[in-house]
User: Fold these one by one.
Assistant:
Number 1:
Amino acid sequence: MNTYHPHLLRTLPTLASALLAALTAPAVLAQDELPELVVTATRVPTPIEQVGSAISVISAEELQQRQIRVVADALRDVPGATVNHSGGAGGITEVYLRGAQANQTLVLIDGVEVNNPDGGAFDFSSLLNLEIERIEVLRGPQSVLWGSAAIGGVINIITRRAERTLQASAQLEGGSFATWQGSASLGSSGDNYDALLSGTWLNTDGWSSGSAWRGNSEDDGARVGTVQFKGNLRPSNDLKLNLIERYTDSRNDFDAFFGGDVRPVTDSDEYADNRQNLVRLQGKYTLLDGAWQHLLGIGRYDLDGKTYSFGMETFDGSTSSNQIDYQSNYFLNSAGAAHTFTFLIKDKEDEATNSYFASNSIHNTGVGFNYGLGLDEQLFLTAGIRRDFNDRFADANTYRLTAAYRWPDIGGRLHGSYGTAVKNPTLIELYGFSGDFQGNPNLQPEESTGYDIGWEQNLLDRRLRFDLTLFNNQIDNIIVGAGRSVINLPGESTSRGVELSANATLSEDLSATLAYTYTDTEDPQGEELIRRPRNQASLNLNYSAFEQRANFNLAVQYSGSSTDLAFDPITFISYPVTLPSYTVVNLAARYQVDKQWQLYGRVDNLFNEEYEQVLGYSGTERGVYVGARYQF
């Protein structure tokens, strides 16, 4: 299952020596940089060094360097994140944060919650990198600010806006598996407005969804198209209006699941058609020279899907989520102390209809308050509380505390957080999916309590930064499968571990990032939670040449062995199996011909590693892609 590469092992000592020499060389970069701001941790722009929660940021430049086409591929390099892809080019792709379930991670796109209102988890398979400005990954229980589903954390995807009077771009690439992808954008920006219209499409024959070494050979392709509009209007200095709409149409082939552990997935003529649409209108009004902010937003997320087998429709479902939120921020500075008061209220209704049950819905209203205190630019504290009023479950109270303390003289920072979160059962868990899966209307919400503490250190004139964080999360009433239904499992599930991240500026042209996560999980019965590797690591090396016109990126991703479940095809009784460890290496290069033209290419899974992240489903097969981009 794993491919051995002795030449890589022989080069490691040489590479380590080169990195050490580069780090100890004289500094060549200016260190007067503006602080990086994040919004997900406090819901207001905050310098990242003032945040007590564990948070990672992926920039647009990093996405371009790695030539990320599907957003989930970028999340593989985030400490604490596990990405599981269910085979084929368009197979279901889920993200776990700190060992929590995929449906216990909240996903936002430009302020709209996009978790499936029916099934709970967001499927990243059709989320293409279309004009993404940054991705913020906030880890730990976050219900105070973000409500249900934020047990493992929050993934916040923020798209870019137009920045020039007139701007346009077009891109086309092709490669292995008869893959073609194109994108284009057109935008304009002025003193009182900006607007950007963009679109992308992907078409590929793909590879077998079921692992080829288990006897599967039929290619399973995918087709994804996305169109997005993002606009801002500023009628006055105190008023700003935002509109975002993003529509995605996708089709992906998949193989039939039969169970067992020899060939659990078998070639078949099955596919799914899905349509997603999100829209959000937000107004922001400020008073008292910006000291008092009011934000009112209205959003909606729709997801419609059908599945087919041998030309026959087997499932038809439609879900929607209506979201209204109001947030008020008040900023007060006095005598070396900075105070931030945030009040928020959010009303959300999820509704679903499918082939197996009539329309059902869940309505929830959350009211929260968060207070932030900064003292002498060194100590930063937050405290928050929230109450959620639900029409189907008992009302829930959650809270969160964070702290960060900076030692500028030694370049160190201590950070930590403690909080609680809640996750409501999904409509599928309550009402079922088909005759083979019956819902349980007596389910209760899952509840969690978690904390983390970490140390961040800057060395060598800030050319080397590392962060070591310990975390622990406990979940009560976890919902698990029981035969052909689900139940709340009595007792606690635990997830604890270590997250390590490091960034090094080795020279003006060479940089490196490293991430490592150790995760120890256990359900109330003492068994390891499935699809959570204990050990995960990634290394990214990025090199620029020819006066920054050329860029080369090497990405190495390692995943240790993990446990999954096989199912007896007759009795449907499950039993554990082990998924072996694997290492995937990706290469990417680009060359800026002039101000308008760029040529690029990449190789995914350079050594064609055979691996599975979900039992029976193939990982990414080796592919070579080349393309060109034009912009002005």
Number 2:
Amino acid sequence: MNETAIRFQRSDLGCRRVLTGKVLSFLTMVLMVGGNANSALGGVHQLWAVGDGQKIDRLELNSPFKNSNSVWDGETISIFAARNEIVAFQLIVESDEEGIESVDVSLPELRHEVSGSKIIYSSPNPDPTDYRNQSIQLFSVNYMQVTKPTKASWIYRSGPSAPADPTGWKPVQLVPENAKAGKGGFPPSVEPSSNQAIWIEVYTGRDRPPGIYRGSLQVTADGQESVLPLELRLFNFNLSDRNTMHAMVYFEGSQPVLYQGHRLDTEYHRFAHRNRIELVHAYSIESATENQQRFLGGDFTGEQSYAGPGEGVGNIIIPDTFYGPGSDYDDRDSAWRTSDEWINFLDANLHEYLTFVYMPDEPDSSQFNRIRNIADNIHSNPGPGRKLPIFVTLAYTAALDTRIDYWCTGPQGYDIDRALKEREKGHEYWIYNGGRPFAGAVVIDAPATDSRAIIWACFKHGIDLYFYWHSVHWRHNHQMKPGAPRNQDVWGNPITFDTGGSYANGDGVLIYPGEEVLHPEHDRGIPGPISTIRLANFRRGLQDHQYLVMASRLGLKKLTEEALQEVVPRVFSDTGENIGFAELEETFESARFRLGLAIEEARQLRRRR
């Protein structure tokens, strides 16, 4: 436990403990009777809170974080954020040996201690991606039993870089409170001697006064009530609506059609926008025209049911091809014509864009001649199509030198020195997916902060785009294990990638189907996407990235370097056999809080000059 991180937050927040006699009595009983609060609150053994970067297994009843952590001091839940940021924490409801039939949680409002300005809860809209009036959102955490660790050498191997506790009942999905009863909808039950996490998200808005906001988390377990105080410190600066780096995640709109029974492209893109990522796939002139407001920002306005980060701001990434180049670029005349048409269309219709032609995925040497031919066809174009970039999922390879505009490699292939040399030549060098110990692993059995650490690593090494290979890999691709069902039961089986020789828990599934027509026993009754702890931590990392960018632009170089040294001291080609990045939420939150304080102070000094 990072005691320094706890002390810094408590002292700087200046929290005043205002507890009712009922709450004080309950908490005293928790502390004095070893957490046995049966007589105070139904079948509850203990109530406590933890941040959004810590996974608490369903059967983990002796967590080292239950007495204190970055958001909890044993009495009060304390969080902090900038304006235009989404901050989340978890209430852990730990049951006694009898269990809890019904536990309900509410957070009616957070009120500014001076101005009276409020952040108000409203009941969830039927469409989970209608974010209007959704400043406070509640979810139940769904657990999946992981019986065997991921076995994929590019994700992690057994040894010092493997996650410390990869098996057990792992927290995975964030199910909206208005889901079906018994499927995560409120009020959930809690099995005997188990944990149930309630995930609470607060969107801070753009125009609220800075300072301390207070509220009460109300918990009702089998008819017995208790209240936990909550404090939010709001910094006096805003996160930008425009991301400071890109996160592109592949999306197949046909998968929600198959699993949920209807097309939900609009809802999924709106959901992604709220999480500061972009769902990407190949576009044609026709599909780009049809979805033009996705890139101009019109799809992300109140009129289109959107509110939150990025309001009115469009997507940027619009690939010409994905997971392969197609055949239009194999012939020079066709390549010139096709690339001219595409670039002319983009220049005429979009204010800003990032596009490319995706070469054969993870190519081997047998495909290099074709890649060189396509690159030469496009680069030799005397017209506007000449600037259409060539993208490849491969570490730098001398045989393709000068042909590639955008290199994109897994963390294990990211050579820090080579990336600098390529950028000096005007080429981008990005990363995709994950893999320990070089960077975080994006699987269920890795720590929650692995996703967050990837984005910190990107900032440290000047990487401005991260790519994850799939968001909804529910229907297994061509690499599936022989004889396995192609339409996977993703709510019932944590393994989502399985070739027979290699398999991974949750790989390619950052989002789960809110409805299930193929496996109706898992239907949540939510007409849209359901998020995950991994995606929430990507969002957290992308928000952290803005803190780091602001601090750098304000000249806070020393503080920024100290934060990077604490969180991601050794990643990519700089790593060894052991993990070289932080795994505990405490480390991230300590760094983020000090960055926030310094940004706030530096901006105030600038305003006074």
Number 3:
Amino acid sequence: MTAELRVVGKPVRRFDALSKAVGATAYADDFKMPGMLHGKVLRSPYPSARIVRIDPRRARALPGVVCVLTAEDIGRAKMVADIPGQTGQRERRGSETPVLAWDRVRYKGEAVALVAAETEEIAEKALELIEVEYEPLPGVYDPLEALKPGAPVVFEPDNVVARWRIRKGDVEVGFAAADLIIENTYRLPFVEHAYLEPEAGVAWVDERGVINIRVSTQVVEHFRTVARTIGVPQNRVRIQAAFTGGGFGGKEDITVEVFLALLAKHTGRPVRLVYTREESILAHSKRHPYVIRYRSGVKRNGRLTAIQVELISDSGAYPYLSPYVLLYSTVAATGPYRVDNVWVDAVTVATNNPFTSAFRGFGIPQVCFAHERQMDEIAKALGMDPLEVRRINYLRTGDTTATGQVIHSAALLEESARRALEALGEKTPDRGPVKVGRGFASYFQSYGRIMWLHDTSQAWVGLELDGTVVIRCGSPDLGGGQLSSLCQIASEVLGVPMDNVVAYTPDTALTPLAGTTTATRQLYMSGNAVLQAATAVRKVLLDRASKLLEEEPDNLDIVNSRVFVRDEPERYIPLVDLVRICAAEGLPLSNLALFRAPFRDPIDLETGQGDVFPDFTFGAFAVEVTVDTETGQVQVLKNVACHDVGRAINPAAVVGQIQGGSSQGLGYALMENLVVEGGEIKTPSLSEYLIPTSMDYPPTEVILLESGTGVGPFGAKGIGEPCLTPVAVAVANAVSDALGVPFNELPITPEKVLKALGKL
């Protein structure tokens, strides 16, 4: 391939851009079928209760009701048992999420029964007619309380879901060598995903007896769990992923798939199920609340000598991905800094609160908040510039992390922080009671999954006889342009214009499995798979063309659907002619590639030492804010994001991702707070749960660094999740700078500002 990139690295229009702009894209809840039934879910009104009895007879007798299912009807043993448990630690049997509760409920909103009816109105009426007798039980709603002896136990024998630890060096020796020890406690709240599209799907049984599910999801591989749960072979369940109207991790776990499959199987008719906004907020996972205790030892010159961290997260009623989220938090707890002596203890705790699981950032934004607030507090105590303190301690290429993993790619921490701060320009002056503050934050974050999980992705790339390209890859597109990036890679390698490349959306019956659209892994994993497959097809083309043009393959290139001699571009073959020759001779014009992520043995569970992730993204976020000391209102004046993305496959898409992640992070900082009291969500709709709009914050200025050192295609690194991570803490640092008062808890509301100033 030529060293000059002609498509990759260019801000080309995404293939799905126009259809989305004009509202032509079909999402999961747009699909309807003749004879379709409407599904509804009966949910528990209690966060902790025993189910005494369930009587669905009145609901079943209602005209228009076709099916009512309880746990008795589907078999009590039916569990969503593919939830990833305890990540190789002790297995807590019985803590898997039941499809439908039968003996007790553990959070408010837990599913108890399913209904399918001719209309939504009839289905809703049927829910009211199902008689459920509950016996309320004591619950536990604070993870700190849940760890105490005598606390109500969500699952026997105790409320500990998972633990992780890191032991590096000798932390006591490190603290003894310190000139100063800084200790703080940080608190992070529940956060709601608030994606535009609620959970939705339609299911039907086809003429072969296959249960088809068209759904909004981040993981089509859930077909295996669905099959096992409803008791059919895996080749009798097919999942088609529609374009997804936002996921952010909230559609990584199973949502409506099993419910749809059960209702379609029992009725033999198509069934549609779409959550209301209130039901979505009630029923899907949340970002983990954390309590983080941080203790840092530092020399007078700013050099860190020791870090001790305690992480406590709220898993909610069921484990889901909490053990994994906690692992990510543990690995990143010390931040992007070189520290010889580290002690991290981490625990995630079961409560009767809404369950928590994946959310954009996957446990890193919480610990980033702690380590970057801590670094600012260290700088303040030493009377040093916050950037200088960080510069002294930043990780560099060749250094090792707290788990002993060597950083192989570029670690552009100092450059990203400096560039972001410089881009803020001159500081805005204070105006009477309105104070101005600046803050920034650095981070490092993985992309790709944990290396002991044998991660793979497949992609098929083929040429049609007219020289157009088809990509088949089971990579769900959440709006981040995942499929469009795959088209760009194939276009670059095969020299075909983007308009002549088509990628099919994930369908477990037709597209090779590509793994989850999570962990910022799809560009890395599926991008490399498409690169491999397209490169194999390119080789076939160039080998055959070399005979026709009487040139070595290395002297040939493909651009704009022409195969030509590099030094004599007038000597060429139209790609369509070459394709037809290859086809007539039986040469392969397609390739199915399997990309394997590097594999490592699991880390040592006693010390946390070992390699965990394939690579890391580094960057910074800087912000200038005003704080009105009379009203407590915080206003964002300027914000700048600077990240090393390795290689921007599509710079326009990358900038869009960073701006979106920045806005979401600003919401995390200043307004988003899912209030949960006694297991009950007190902000149950978007009227109470506030998220940013385009009017709330100025656009984020984006600075892209391209080291070309990532492990993705063409040296790309992942950015979809990392771009959110440093935002909220940069705001907290800016507000603290403006007022001279530490803000160690999110969100930073006007009430909290006034309270910190002693005015409330």
Number 4:
Amino acid sequence: MKISFKNIKNKIRATNKEASFNDNLLIKIFIGLITLIVISLFLPNYKSIDSDIEIGTVWSSEDLIAPFSFPIYRDENEYESEKKEVAKNVPPVFVEVEKNLQELKDSLNAFFISLDNLFHKAGNERTGQDGINSDKFLQEKTNTGLELTQDNWSKLFKYYKSEYKNSGNVSYPNFKNIIKQNILDLSNDNIININKSKLNVKEITIKYNKEKLLGVENPDKVSDKSHVLTDIKEKFSQILKDPELTEIAYQIANNFIKEDLIFSKELTDLEIQNRVEQIPKTIGIVRENERIVSKHDPINNFTKLKLDSFKKVRLENIGVQDYFKQIVGKVMTIFILLLILILFLYYTRPDIFKDNLRLALLSSLMILVSFVSFLSLKLTINAPVELLIFVSVASILLTIIFDSRLAFFAIVIICMLIAAIRGGDFTAVFVSFSGSVLAIFSVRDIKNRSQIFRSFYFILAGYTLAILAIGFDRFESIQKIFTNLLYGGINAIMSPIIAYGLLIFYEKVFRITTDLTLLELADFNQPLLKELSTKAPGTFHHSIVMGNLAEEAATAIKANRILARVGCYYHDIGKTIQPSFFVENQIEKYNRHETLNPNLSAKIIISHVKEGMELARKYKLPQEIIDFIPMHHGTTLVKYFYSKAKNQINEDKEDFSEYIFRYPGPKPQTKETGIAMLADTVEASTKAIEDPSPKKLEEKIDDVIKKRFMEGELDECDLTLKELTQIKKSFLKILIGIHHQRIKYPEETKVLD
């Protein structure tokens, strides 16, 4: 058994090392620096003049006088829109390819000569149509560049041999002349190299190579190759009146008709650039010492343009020294906000300040929201994406993981960070704050995970009211208000879903035991509690009563009442291994310890601590619950068997060690485990009181608390004397309710006939 106790102590030492890690000051500084640096990187590379300038607001600062002259730049959206319109209407530029009709005429003559020679050779090789099937013909016909089917070649060969006159009275020589003439005639037209239907412009620009000048033409005066070929095919069809000959003529025309106006993307882009450069970027100028805006003046369109222009010019003139000042200013801004939060945690929530894991969790949430704010600033889409900064997710998580008070304070800091990142965007901050605060109230007393989705209604209400308030105050259009409400609704829908998923993530990664987890463990259908109620019903009943005592006491001193109650439910689960060795589970009068050596009995009793911790780890209970198993006994003695052994040794005159009769500890480290120790002893000891009265119960509670206090078992759990008095009152209130005197009803007498 000594080895078992050593194992327990080793595990306790490991726990202490982990506690030392969580309370390490260097790690706290590292977390703070990482948070400071990362969030500082998200701040914009410019500084607003005073705050976010919006049309409809009133300039509340002193008169703003121009320290230098600067141009008034046009509205960026208006300027970009005009650029797009100009680019859309710029005529596309085509470069003329120099025409040489004589070369074309010579090429056509050469083509038909080569075609006649080919047919002549084919006719000499073999009489009849089979000449065009010879290997030599098949090889040489590719040199003509003419792609025809075998039937068309046969048709053209027969036409050549017989000089058909029955095809519209057109002989083969005339057939050749018709093709030549039509190709030469159409080659005089301007033919572009792109589909004409895609020219959605009123004019096109043509660069004439000879004159090296640009000319503007109506698109109706040019054609594309597909239209030209379609027209020529119709002409051939009317003249030749033979589909096969028409197709042959069409293929020949397709080979020789070339585009002479080639689209130039480079010249078109250059023309667009020239036109864009002619668009005026400014609409006026502000002279040095001229008033830009007066105090209490409303911000109209023109005033906003002047303020934006002043900010732009001023930032363009920033030097290295100014950039350094800006970096210092950004870091100081985040540092001040983080310092305020640190001071709040240090003075009001020291338990969280000491826990580095919880500080890292808080830091990660702040960085996450800051990153989303940064993304919303970088997106250039025309939509209120700032309403999709899910601050409500942070408020839900902080309330569930910590409490509503910390959540509210942290949300104020987070909203200030959003304001810094978005350059003082009051709309985003006000709407996010409104929705987040109502989200805190919606999950403040949450009982199960599904209630997270109840926050949807509260977030939606907060966003809706805030958006309407700002929209009405600034005379925004109904369409803009509706769009904002739509994005606010998306936020309200997504926030509970994201919070639900992140809660599970944070519970696993940061080993956080939330009240939700504790409430789930409080369900009597949990495997360990079902096993306890079945195998050790007396211990189970004792745990339930003890849980009620602990919860009432924790509420009185503002400790975690849920943790205190659930910890008591599981504090004695080790007794399920050998339940019959514990008096509360012994149904018959026979006590199994009567035949055992008191040393062995003590070892069996004490072993339920080790066995309980092993069971708890097997069923993956949170460490906060596992702590109740050894700490509710602390380092107290198993007094009954200690006294029994001491009496036996006095009779036998043998020495014995107190060590084997003492629980291995540790002593209670938290207020909740300290309450559990007192509740355990009080519940067990008050059962033995005969005819319990409030006075007897109070005396017994006093005796138990004083005893544990004098033994030093409560030295490490930070319970004050005032809190011990409150705990005593809470215990007494519950026990009086349990042990109240009942009215004795008279027995019914038999009624004799």
